[in-house]
## 1
Amino acid sequence: MEAGSGVSGSPELTVVLSTLGNYQGLQRVLDGYSTQTAPPASFEVVVVVDAAEKDRGAVDAAIGNRPFKLRVLNGTAPGLSANRNTGWRAAEANVVLFTDNDTIPVPRLVAEHRDWHRVYPDEATGVLGHVRWAPELHISTFMRWLDTGFQFDFDKIQGIEAGWGRMAGANVSLKRSFIERVGDFDQEHLPYLYEDTEWAYRASKAGFRLVYNARAVVDHLNLMTLEYWQQRSRRVASEEYKFWRLHPELEPWFHRIFSAAAAAPKARGRGVRLAPYVPKELPWLGPRVWASVDMYYKQAIAPYFLDAWEEAERTGQSSSTERDLSEYAAEHLLEPSRVHSR
């Protein structure tokens, strides 16, 4: 399927947008690309429909007619890795921007990525954009805690050097020629979660540099809860275990964090109750409250993560399983239930 076919010229940037379920989110994301400051002829969007998608008609309805060139392709297997591989291989532009169906672009997103690749033309340099919570969401204490490094780690970036370990497929652009040199995302072992980190680690051996553009923003329309993350952490554990088996020279970061939390004295949760009223920057009290928040949430998630890690060790799991892919599909097809307005 192709939309925006009246747009002529060669695009400077290809947006690769993976989608599974969340049809309203997909529509809003594409609405965002319809209002970009960059001329419609300067970019294209390749929507890659996950192989686990059950309602292709709903996807087509969400896409509609767009003012830019748009193509719809089918992923070869369930998971983000397969979708991104399908998308980058089909890209007409040398700059490929990876994103998802719940990350709404601000009007300058395409222009910011495009312009930074002009400033940093070296093939091995990629651009990491900023991911923030969508303004319409109620930002809970838990979601604020996720922003301290568990979901994204933007606050710790000094200057523009992000480092390969912060690559996030929700908003990152790479040169197609460099992707060809590094190779595909590992869709066999890491179909979803850790696929971007694993690719970035391989890329680092080829001289990968990741620079951070704080003005290249997407709004993450996805309400996160502790209960959701407790279940999600089981998949994180499974995928981190696979990542570690592929690259045993690297320390498994989440395993270290949650193991330490499980061994620490039990947090009482007082900080969680105070956090809505105490900013992290408040002298003396702020750091104490948020240290309490940090330990409370780590300890609330740790048993779920460590249990799944132990299961992965027992089974020796090193590649994706039918259960993994089934859980991935179920999570994404149910995702709209976690999106709420104020």
## 2
Amino acid sequence: MLALTDADVVHVAVQMLLVTAKVSAPILIVSLAVGFGMSLIQSVTQLQDATISFVPKLIGVALVIVFAGHWMLAELKTFTLMLFDLIPAMLNDH
């Protein structure tokens, strides 16, 4: 039987959403910024090809993963360990 209350489950779900937002934010922000910059360049130079912004976005995302990947993994590891620590709380003493 579970000993967690509804409030505990909601708290874990909120924490999961916060960790997801924190981990994905750097990649999304860099991808958005590079895409916006490439759109500006394309509109100035009148080049209207959708594939031109793909390589700069790919490079930007790869750089973010290289520089922030350790932090991202540490955040995910911390959250996972917190979930594993909750397992004994989910079991009754019976």
